[in-house]
Amino acid sequence: MVTQDGYAVSQPPRRSRVAVAPIVATLAITAGLILVRGVADQQIDHVASIVPLAQVRPPLAQDAVVGRLVAAPRAPVGSGGFELLATKPGSVAAYDPCRPLHLVVNHERAPSDADAILRDAISMVGPAAGLQIVVDGPTDELAQEVRPTMDRGRYGNRWSPALVAWTTPERVPTLDGNVAGVGGSVAMTDSRGQLHNVTGIVYLDGPALTEVSVRKGGHEMAVAIVAHELSHLLGLAHSETAGQLMNAENKGQTSLGDGDRRGLAALAAVPCNREF
User: Fold this and answer.
1) What is the rounded CA–CA span in Å between residue 195 and residue 190?
2) Residue 36 — very low, low, confident or very high, per pLDDT cuts 50/70/90?
């Protein structure tokens, strides 16, 4: 059996696993990914140290603008069907809709159609989240369980772009067993107390997804797995509602459900970040 963090491909998962964005303490951010205790029924996958904000704050990104880059999505009629990873009163951790979300890709153990899988997954979740998601290109940065929020040697004086890494359980033990992908982001607070995701990861079990992608209907299933992990990156948690891509026990959903779309629309309804 191959699953992503609770997303079943051939039979029900044994355990649900997920890397999530942290709820960040005032004037501090995580140096890597951390799963916060207090998110119900989630297993801790990543733990990182907390460093003072002043040590890691880059200047405002040059491609940050004063308005949205992509039209705000319209949520389906109805309510619920989704859960958010990191919130506090009056704020939800999400990416800035007024700048591109940059990704870099490490192809260490990528399937032959990895770029097509990622492209189709981005096409699924990007518009639904009201984000312009840009793949900057390949990187030599390998997957690691604790990743720095800034890597000036590789990426300059800015937040590290989100890393999509096709890797293995040997390099990322979280992917061991029935887990084919993990995803999450690092959030920080601005001077008004608003949460903003600044960088994150999507780590994918390359050999497992290679096996998935060559099956009948495998491309669609691989796209769904990556879209699920990208949605964790953007700020969605697992949904308890059936028929959602973010359901932890999904056994065949390959497109966004109404709850998924409501959740991504909620993440899109955040203010521009004009501080960092």
Assistant:
1) 7
2) very low
